[in-house]
Design a protein that fits this description.
alpha/beta, Enolase-like, domain 1, TIM Barrel, 2 domains, eight-stranded parallel sheet, three-stranded antiparallel sheet, 34% helix
Amino acid sequence: MNPALTDLLSTARVVSLPLRSRFRGVVDREVMLFEGPNGWAEWSPFLEYPDEEAAVWLAAAIEFAYGKLPEVRREAIPVNATLPAVAPDQIEKVLSRFGSFGTVKIKVAEKGQDLNDDLQRVWAVRAAYPDARIRLDANGGYSVEQAIALAGAMLENGVPLDYLEQPVASIAEMAELRLRLTKAGIGANDKIDSAGRTGVKIAADESVRKVSDPMAVVQAEAADVLVLKAAPLGGITRALDIAAEAGLPVVISSALESSVGLSMGAHLAAALTLHGTAGAGTSPGGLAFDCGLGTGALLAGDVTREPLTPIDGFIEVRRVAVDEQKLDVFEAEDHRIDWWIDRLDRAYKHLN
């Protein structure tokens, strides 16, 4: 049973957190926080999302603050560094904030940039961090032909590629791309190396969280890996159910949240079994690769004095203690607070 709307509003705070670099087209991140019996939770659907979609994020936040959560299996989660679509001369400055890391997720297909811009960013990362594995996140911004060209360039230049994340927009395009990569001999296949990787893998993000049926991408054989985010999927329990049903390796990622939201993602990652042969602590699906939960390093401000930022390639699995002074410092302007309260009222009506 959901808490009353008045209960949510009684502790609700809206903050605007500055980013160190433009990311996903924004320079600050607005979020609403509220506190329940379990601790603080974050509700932060992106501003353009409709109320029905925002309600799914709200259900996740309510579960984290009020619900019964699964037991965790580990105390820390390995994370990748995340590189926005910055110019090559900014790369080392941005990535230095992540400390040590073994994997870099590079944003590509940014509006106003082209494939050459993306390749130059990849080559610069390879030159500066030759031992790091690479994953490329296009947020559905490529055509099938562009994605094939990019995949070919990665293999030709020996880039140790984890996967292409949501390279194209639709599930049909994802399936076509995966099939064409396989026919070209550069797609993933059944012969998996000791690290669980081979060929060019396709990871699905938006094709899982922004469709009515998260299993559609699995049924279409359109992905090798699922990128799961707790908030957009309706919470930890729902995400675990999707991971179990899909049977594919999964990576847990963030939605550019504060440390409170990252804490929910860390709890999800910590509740998963590991990907591998079914047995003690492993499953055919389950957690694989470094997770995209280190994005706290992209924030210039947070809501806690002990943020969930990467340390030696890991973040802790813990609840976050919100600092009242931080809430005051980053409190959103009055008209934005009113906007979020109105939005909460509308989204709450869509809860089951």
